[in-house]
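pipeline/complex-builder :: batch 7 item 3
reading input block
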Amino acid sequence: AQKITQTQPGMFVQEKEAVTLDCTYDTSDPSYGLFWYKQPSSGEMIFLIYQGSYDQQNATEGRYSLNFQKARKSANLVISASQLGDSAMYFCAMREANNAGNMLTFGGGTRLMVKP
Amino acid sequence: DAGVTQSPTHLIKTRGQQVTLRCSPKSGHDTVSWYQQALGQGPQFIFQYYEEEERQRGNFPDRFSGHQFPNYSSELNVNALLLGDSALYLCASSFGPVGLNTGELFFGEGSRLTVL
């Protein structure tokens, strides 16, 4: 079974509008971390936001927020006030406690395209 | 402050050849992980090096090997190249084998390998 599922291969959003990128995950480990990365055409994976499984509040980083619904095992990324520079691939990833270290499991990604 | 640097950025090899990719971690980081990203997919964890030893390994054959040097830089070696090894190889660095409470994992821009 897929551990990280991103069901939106591609999405369009109008500049200055908000957009939600979906991510669901599957783990039996009670302790885990969820990440979102942005990958522009240059290839570099840019860290956006992190949510720990025991965090009580949803993570926020500037225009990025993570809508964490633990019971549903979802960790959707919300980008507010989209900018043209937000056009890129976005990856959701998970790290489980029983695989502590730098082993991240990534989803297949969502390509976001921001329209002017 | 230099981030994670990788070399070469692009290379072309033929089947059966061997390749070595190099990574210098971000200043202050001592742990390096390698990921393989096939076209249109999310990255997959290959292995992690800390204190010059392989600490964790993903589901990759022994043709994939690595090394970490005393200055924390790392090499990824792939022997007997197959067409399916064509991918973007990403290096990530952190300070110590990262626990769950942080997203401090920085990626380089990758080395794009084409096997003909």
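note: DSSP finds no helices and eleven strands in chain B.
queue -> next item
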